[in-house]
Amino acid sequence: MFVDVSCSQETKRGQNTSGDFFVSRRHIDEGRVLAVLSDGLGSGVKASILSRMTATMLLGFVEERTDLRTAAELVIRSLPVCKARGLNYSTFSVLDCDDEGRVRVLEEGNPEFLWFRGGLPLHAPFDLLDSEAFPDRRMRLYEFEVLEGDRLIFVTDGVTQAGLGRPGPKNPGLGRQGLSDFVSALLQRHCVIDSQRLAKHLTSMAVGLFPDRLPTDDVSAAVAHFRVPRRCLVFTGPPFERSRDPYYAEAFAAFKGPKAICGGTTAQFLARELNLLIKVGQGRGGGLPPESAMEGVELVTEGLLTLTRAIQYLETNDLRRPDPAGALVRFMLAHDIIHVMEGTAVNVANFDPSQTHDLDIRRNVIKRMAQVLQTRHLKMVRVQRV
Question: With b meaning 16 or more CB within 10 Å and e meaning fewer, what string describes 310-341?
């Protein structure tokens, strides 16, 4: 299975930074995904510091397989004490899972997570862990196994308490049950919704329950979806040996899944070998050469300029640009496993001294792209040099 993880957040009204913090990491070699959602005491910068420290430290401890009770107490002891409240409190939810469906969840202070299968809620057994150093705090530890299609949902209390105090008799706010009912109805209508859209639906719904859609608390929702991976192929650069063109063209055509081509020379050799026509686009797309079209290929763009711009968008999380690089970003982010066929034939144009500021050697560009897709966007990237 592939674990698709995403988080959506909205900031408390009047604040420039969120007091909630989410961090996640994928270890491809272990088939393991880790994530932490934390809610710092109060709001604004102080809360942000508490939640950020909590989440990043816990992630590090869990990565090293430190005993969870020990890890949590080490983190709590390390947090700075708020002078106004005399406390150093930050809630957390920790997810540690693998692509075989084995799951561990550790929670303290956050609303209890939700587990859905086929639009219906399930309940996981848990053990209570008492804190030796902080007797007023009890952690919940869950260990269970999920099946393909299952979803886990984690939220901060800005979601479950949304609507609290609105006009009406004894308005208790959304609550965990109200959240569960909303998710269940949504999944039964849209069973294939991805984690990013589901997380956004949850925060948008919660914000809508606050007067004038102005949240009185930070709002965060994280979703983990266990599913069959979505695969795509990106081919950039012609093969080193021209005699191998037919072989790699056939491999490209036989790939089961959406395909993209980055590079005019690459598109030309594939069109020649596969007896296809290239329809060249007109004008320029945001300072880049326009997209082209080829039968059976979802996206055809220019090569290194477009790849370099796409990396900039990925690194800055600028994912909505209407140019060809933005289209390439959206193409890759719509999939989980990105296969890259990287041709190693030398393109003399890439060594034009006037272009050295904007262009990099293709290998370094692909390496950067793979790194940002894997670390920032939790994708799996497999590069084959040809």
Answer: bbebbeeeeeebebbbbbbbebbeebbebbbb
Q: Pick from 21, 8, 73: which is nearest to 47 by CA? A: 21
Contact 210, 195 (CB under 8 A): no
Instruction: Tell me the percentage of the chain whose pLDDT exceeds 70.
Output: 90
User: Using one digit for the tens of pLDDT, what is the confidence trace for 140-175?
Assistant: 999 999 999 999 999 999 999 998 766 665 666 789
User: Chain centroid to CA 236: how far?
Assistant: 25
Let me know if 136 is exposed, middle or buried by CB neighbors in 10 A (0-12, 13-18, 19+). Answer: exposed
**Alpha carbons 252 and 341: distance in angstroms, whole number:** 9
How far apart, in whole angstroms, are the C-alpha atoms of residue 40 and residue 19? Answer: 5
Task: Give the global pTM.
Answer: 0.82
CATH fold group of domain 2-227: Phosphatase 2c; domain 1 (3.60.40)
Cα radius of gyration (the chain): 24
Nearest to 373 by CA among 385, 362, 381, 382: 381
Please give the Cα distance from 238 to 345 (Å, whole number).
6
Cα 233 to Cα 228: distance, rounded to the nearest angstrom = 16
Helix (H) or strand (E) holding 196: helix 195-208
Is residue 273 packed enough to be buried (19+ CB in 10 Å), middle (13-18) or exposed (0-12)?
middle
Q: What is the mean pLDDT of residues 332-343?
A: 94
Q: Cβ(285)–Cβ(324) under 8 Å? A: yes
CB 122 within 8 A of CB 105: no
Cβ–Cβ < 8 Å for 19, 218: yes
Domain spans of the chain?
Answer: 2-227, 231-385
Task: Please give the distance of CA 337 from its chain centroid, rounded to a whole number.
Answer: 13
pLDDT confidence of 207, banded at 50, 70, 90? very high
- Reduced to 3 states (helix: H, G, I; strand: E, B; else coil), residue 43 is coil
Say what the pLDDT of residue 171 is.
66
Q: CA 37 to CA 55: how far, in whole Å?
A: 6
